[in-house]
Amino acid sequence: MNFLRRRLSDSSFVANLPNGYMMDLQRPDNSTSSPVSPAMERKHPQPPQPSQSSSTGTSIFSSISSAMKQTTQAAAGLIDHSTSPTPPVAPKPKILLVIDDAHTEWAKYFQGKKVNGEFDIRVEQAEFSELNLAAYVTGGCMVDMQVMRNGTKVVRSFKPDFVLIRQHAYSMALGEDFRSLIIGLQYGGIHTVNSLYSIYNFCSKPWVFSQLIKIFSSLGPEKFPLVEQTFFPSHKQMVTTPNFPVVVKLGHAHAGMGKVKVENQHDFRDMASIVAMARTYATSEPFIDSKYDIRIQKIGNNYKAYMRTSISGNWKANTGSAMLEQIAMTERYRLWADACAEMFGGLDICAVKAVHSKDGKDYIIEVMDSSMPLIGEHVEEDRQLIADLVVSKMTQLVTTAGSTPSPLRPWILACFPQRDLPHAYMHISLSGGPRQPQASQPPRTNAPPQQRLSPQGQQPQSPLSTSPQQQRSPGSPQQVRSATGSSPVQASKAGVFPPQQPRPPAQGRAPSQPSPTETSKQQANPHPHLNKSQSLTNTFSVSESSQRGNPNEDEAKAETIRNLRKSFASLFSD
User: Fold this and answer.
1) Which pTM does this prediction carry?
2) Compositionally biased, Low complexity: which spans (predicted)?
C-alpha cells in the first residue's frame, strides 16, 4: 500500500495511467479511507461542487440586490438618519488683535464673551514693534507677529477681524514711528477702536490742538476754557514771547517728555537753538501755577473724573509723587468730554486734561485718545468697560456685514398717451404717487404735428381737422382722423394728399413745421390760400354727394384740389 502511494505521488507515473483508472483510484470509499495522500490533495484540489457555486452566486446576487434597495431608499428619503445626527460645525472664532504692552493680559477680559452670541473671540496681543503686515485690495490684511512669551519666541500669521489700539503710534521722543502700520490697517479695511482715522490724526499734537481751537470758537471761553498757545513751525520764528514764564513743548511726545519751563528771554533763545537741532516744530503756552490737575475720561458711555495733586513739588503733576482722587462728574466736565469725543469722526475712548490754577480758573491743555493710560483704583473696571465696548463694536460689525442691504428702488417712467393729447405723458414712480401730466415738446423731426388746445375746453384741433359735417357722419369714407391715427388710403381718397404731392411720411416721422414767426406771418396774410385753417376747412367742406356727382361738381373738386396744392406749397415753400 505504501508502495502504491509512493508511485501515485510520482507525477510521471500518474501521467502514464489511463484516465479511467485514475478516476477509480480517486473515487471515495465509505468503508476505507481515500488512497490519495494529502500531498496529492494539495496538488490536485477537488473542483467546487455545483451546489456550492450556485449557492455562492445566489448569495452574491442577494447582497447586490439588498445594497441597491438600500441605495434607492436612501435616495427617496425612506431611511431615517435621526438615530445618528451630524454634529453641528462650530463657527470660526473672530480674531481680535490688541496692540498693547505685555503688562496687561487682555485675553482674560474677553474670556467667555461672544460676538453676536455665536462667535468666540480669539485674542492676539502684541506691541507695535512686534508687528508687521501686508495689506491687499481684496485679500484684507495679513499680520505677522513675533513676540516673546516666557523666553520663547512665538511667530504667528493671521488676519484680524478687529483691532484694539492701546499704544501710541508715533512718538518723537522714543524714535518710534508706526504710522505705516496704521496705514496698512486702513488699507486692509480693518475696523479698530478708536478709528484709524482718528489715531492717525492724533500723531501730531498741534494738529489735535487745532481741533480744540475749533471747539473753543464754537462753545466760547466760558464753557470751554482753552489755554492760550503759540505754534512755531521751526526755530526761526522763536524770537520772543509776550509773557514769562512759559512752557515750551518740542514736537510730538508723551508722558511729560519734551516739555521745558522757560523763565526768561535768554532761556527762550537757548530753547530755540535746541528746537533747531531737533528739526521739528514747537509750541509755547503760559505757565499756570496749578493747584491740581483734572482728568475727565470717557469710555463708551461711562464717565469718570479724577483730581491729581503733586506731592513732590514738581511743576509737572504727572512726574514724581502725586495724590490721585476721584471727584464728582459735573455737567461742565461732561460737556468737555462730549465735545472732544466728536472730533475726527468720533472717539470711543478719550480723556481731557485740564489744569486748575490757584486763582480758581480751569484751563484745558490736552486731549488723549484710546492710548490714554488708565489711572485710579478702578483700572480693572475700566479695562472691562473697554472689553465690553470692543465686543459691542464687533457685534455691530458682524450684524452690519450679515444684513443684506436693501436695493435702491428704481424709478419707472410709464408713458400713457392721452386720447386728446398724444404728446402729454404721465410719470409714475414706485416711491411716490402719479405725477401731474406734463406736456412734453417732442423733437420736430421725430413726432407728428403738435395739436393745439382750443379755448373753453373744446376738443383740440389738429392742422388736418375735419369739418363739423364730416364729424357727424362717422360712416363716411371721406372722414379724416387725426394725424396719428389716419389711414393714408382714406386720406388720399378724401383729397388731403393730392396725387402730385409726396406720400405721407412713415410712422414716427413728420414733415417740418413752420416756426412761430412764419406762422404769425401766414396768419397775418389776407390771402385765402395762406390761411391754413380756412383753406383746410374749405377743402373738407365738400359733401359726400359732390364726390359722386355731376361734371360741374367734378370741376369744382378739381379746382379745390388745385387750391389745396397751392396752399400746401405756400406752407412748406420756406
Assistant:
1) 0.58
2) 51-60, 448-482, 506-516
